[in-house]
Amino acid sequence: MSIDARDLGNVDAAEWFKHRSYDYRQFSVEEMSRRKRSLGLTVTAVLPCRNVADTVGGIIDEIHAVNERVSEKSPLIDQILAVDADSDDGTSEVAVKHGAEVFSENELMSDHGGAHGKGDAMWRALSVARGDLVMYIDADTKDFRAELAYGVLGPILHVPQIRFAKAAYRRPFKAGEKLEEDGGGRVTELSAKPLFNLFYPELTGFVQPLAGEFVADKELFRSIPFMTGYAVETSIMIDVLNRVGLSAMSQVDLGTRQNRHQSLRDLSRMSHSVLRAVARRMREDGRLRTSNDPSSPDSLSQFSDYLHAVATPDGLSLNEYVEELVERPPINEVLRVK
Ligand SMILES: Nc1nc2c(ncn2[C@@H]2O[C@H](COP(=O)(O)OP(=O)(O)O)[C@@H](O)[C@H]2O)c(=O)[nH]1
Ligand SMILES: [Mg+2]
User: Looking at the CA of 260, which ligand is closest?
Assistant: First the structure.
């Protein structure tokens, strides 16, 4: 598989999807490490942690194992940072034991008061990240495989125009003994993707826009605001788009990822965070008037369909559904004239 490294100008979501979607198997760890060295770059992995004592150790081990595959003298990932929410399950002890640099989120940037959730922890981590590239990795993945730690680095290291890479994967959902292959990622499917279709159609090609695994150069992360809590992934997608444009963004298929399941009640609050983030940016960017609703009279957008980006066993796919929204007048107005 050759690597699509062409320069893109202004593209729509479908073109972007075609040229900026990669598969982690296109990039070898050895080649990435060689490129990283020749570009003179260093990499920091940031693991935001809240009560992940059962998973974080294995994830850190996996990162060390990736480094050992190349050479300990010139590792692919130079710094492993765990930013812990003062977890009470022993998370920080486990992370230290496995060789990460561990910080309490409340001790970093403490003149900003106590930390406000995941996004704040990620923001504070930037104050101690030494790498030229910063890669965030969720620390609650159960079936963590090495590619979750290095896969997103591929496009950043191989394609000069690319400054941001997001993980894409299938999300199985396990309810009791029953496994639903693509039943996970409910907030993504029910909130983020429909909202992006309406207000940020450029972003509809992303299969997992809310994935916690993504990388960019530290300068880019340092130049954008971070929303706190679970609004962070949504706001980063929009702010990176506004700052560097779609052609500098990419996604990498990493296979499947089993997430820790949250209750519908928690997901509802998470979904509210996503909506708030979009609502705030949409107002600032003046996007309400130009929404992608095909039946809105002042719609300026060329996207009128529902674009649904999904991961399948055969790779990523962008499906298009034409859905017309017709508004019938109050029936009184129609019946009266007859
Ligand atoms: N430091 C810190 N990490 C958090 C916080 N909330 C969640 N995380 C971590 O962020 C990652 C993703 O969080 P999670 O709740 O699983 O969100 P989801 O994967 O989007 O459903 C996991 O590694 C969590 O442990 C927080 O308040 N502070
Ligand atoms: Mg999770």
Answer: 2
Q: Which CATH number fits domain 13-336: 3.40.30.10, 3.90.550.10, 3.10.20.340, 3.40.50.720?
A: 3.90.550.10
Does residue 337 carry a pLDDT above 90? no
DSSP letter string, 98-113:
TT-EEEETTTTTGGG-
Q: What is the pLDDT of residues 269-301, one digit of tens each?
A: 999 999 999 999 999 999 877 666 554 544 444
Residue nearest ligand 1's atom 19 by CA: 259
The fraction of the chain above a pLDDT of 90, given in percent, is 81
For residue 304, the model assigns a pLDDT of 65
Query: What is the pLDDT averaged over residues 13-21?
Result: 97
- The full set of domain ranges for the chain reads 13-336
Distance (Å, rounded) from C-alpha 278 to C-alpha 200? Answer: 9
* Contact residues of ligand 1, CB 6 A cut-off: 48-50, 52, 83-85, 105, 117-118, 121, 138-140, 212, 259-260, 262
Amino acid occupying residue 62: E
For residue 168, what are the CA distances in angstroms to 24, 47, 99, 133, 205?
10, 18, 28, 19, 10
